[in-house]
Design brief:
By secondary structure, this protein is an alpha/beta fold. Helix content is 38%, strand content 20%. 42% of the residues are buried.
Length: 225
């Protein structure tokens, strides 16, 4: 009897957050045999952005996901910065539905940082992964950082990202950076905080914090052993 693969769900507020935050972790877990699903909740859509901008980022996301081994890409298409207009129960329900359908053992969520969409998605993901019902099968829930938004919180006034789990991505950092380059409409030239060089520098910093060359930092919300 063939065992079902373990499943990892990454919840991203916008296309590119998943690669910025955990692109190397996605590649690593895909190589380990996990089925990785990326749920992208929001995106650059009208009324603030032209629809063509959103469609471009979706295509960029699909190309990036192919590089890091994503099994399934789901796009909810809620307009960016408009998540607060969604009734809480509806937004929660959309994420709960995906969590139930995927049945992940690991869920990675954005950290509740400077971007309001990141905070809404974090809150809804925490609801969707509660350890009751379908949530009892989830072994790890953790939050990832996203350049630049996570590092723009006001120190000591708002929560600051402090990783307590660093994933060694030394063998996967080139995949991460290659995937990041797919987001031509989103990345910026150095010294922009979302430049390839800045992302690589952060991976070196996080890695050396834990004793290896390149890493991705996460904050564990809940872990079941």
């Amino acid at each position: 009897m063939v065992e079902s693969p373990q499943k990892l769900l990454v919840v991203a507020p916008h296309p590119d957050d998943e690669i910025l935050g955990v692109g190397g972790t996605i590649a690593k877990y895909a190589k380990l045999g996990y089925q990785v699903t990326v749920l992208t909740v929001s995106g650059h859509r009208p009324p603030l952005y032209p629809e063509a901008a959103y469609q471009r980022t979706v295509e960029e996301a699909k190309a990036a996901h192919a590089i890091v081994g994503v099994h399934a890409s789901i796009f909810l298409g809620v307009p960016a910065t408009m998540l607060g207009n969604e009734p809480v129960a509806e937004l929660n329900g959309k994420i709960v539905k995906v969590v139930r359908e995927v049945g992940p053992s690991i869920v990675l969520s954005p950290y509740p940082d400077r971007h309001v969409d990141h905070r809404y998605v974090f809150e809804s993901t925490m609801v969707a992964t509660r350890p009751v019902g379908h949530g009892r099968g989830i072994r790890i829930v953790a939050a990832y950082e996203t350049l630049s938004e996570t590092h723009w919180n006001a120190p000591h006034i708002e929560p600051n990202f402090t990783p307590n789990w660093v994933v060694d991505i030394s063998d996967f950092v080139e995949q991460k950076l290659l995937a990041l380059r797919c987001y031509e409409s989103q990345i910026s030239p150095f010294p922009g905080p979302r430049s390839v060089e800045a992302v690589q520098a952060l991976s070196v910093f996080r890695g050396t914090q834990a004793g290896f060359a390149n890493g991705e930092g996460l904050h564990v919300v809940r872990m079941v052993s």
